[in-house]
Automatic annotation (TrEMBL):
Name of protein: Uncharacterized protein (DUF305 family)
Taxonomic superkingdom: Bacteria
Keywords: Signal
Signal peptide: 1-21
UniProt keyword Signal, yes or no: yes
Domain DUF305: start-end pairs: 61-213
Length: 216
């Protein structure tokens, strides 16, 4: 009898514990004001990746995404060269960071354009390197992307590092100009958010590169 009583008491305690835990979860959900369906949706959203693309956009948003993709591709091309040729480990690390940051942004902007039903390339891109396009921010010290790459290929040692930093500063300044245009004229909230992030990130990198130039 004593053993049966202890088993019954233990079972009762376990049931009470589980009941209290369930009640606690229900109270938290109730305090959050969520229905069971909303709770399930929230749980799913937490594991489903990025939020859905907001399809509301205007011409400025489209142009920003199209041109910034090409601009980022240019930065990655320059950075990949610097990873191979840089004399300084600091410059090499910076180049790796730039490439790693801008690759995902290209994918993000490409997904927007596809969701918006827009071309992922500017209509007049046809075979031109992006330095040749008539758009603010695509010029580096008077050189197109192709010209800048050729110039960097000819450099070596500390001279390469110096020219890479100088040209990437100009390249970043162009990206800031393009992002500022988007903030002024765009309407898509996700594009506006990325534009502000580009301004913040690239201004910080400009300051970093200017300091690195002083130390060369």
């Amino acid at each position: 009898m004593k053993i049966a009583s202890r088993l019954a008491a233990g079972t009762g305690a376990l049931v009470l514990s589980l009941t209290l835990a369930a009640c606690g979860g229900s109270e938290e959900a109730a305090e959050a004001g969520a229905t069971p369906q909303e709770q399930a949706a929230t749980a799913t959203a937490g594991t489903s990746g990025d939020a859905a693309v907001d399809e509301a956009h205007n011409d400025a948003d489209t142009t920003f995404a199209q041109m910034m993709i090409v601009h980022h591709e240019g930065a990655i091309e320059m950075s990949d060269l610097a990873v191979e040729k840089a004399d300084s480990e600091e410059v090499r690390a910076l180049a790796e960071d730039i490439s790693a940051a801008q690759g995902p942004e290209i994918e993000q902007m490409t997904s927007w354009l596809e969701a918006w039903g827009e071309e992922t390339m500017p209509m007049d891109h046809g075979g031109m390197d992006h330095g040749g396009m008539d758009h603010g921010g695509m010029d580096m010290d008077g050189m197109s992307q192709e010209e800048a790459m050729g110039h960097l290929e000819d450099q070596s040692g500390p001279d390469f590092d110096r020219r890479f930093l100088e040209l990437m500063i100009a390249h970043h300044e162009g990206a800031v100009t393009m992002a500022e245009d988007e903030l002024a004229d765009g309407e898509n909230p996700q594009a506006l958010e990325l534009a502000q992030k580009i301004i913040d990130d690239q201004q910080a990198e400009i300051a970093q590169m200017e300091q690195m130039l002083q130390n060369l």
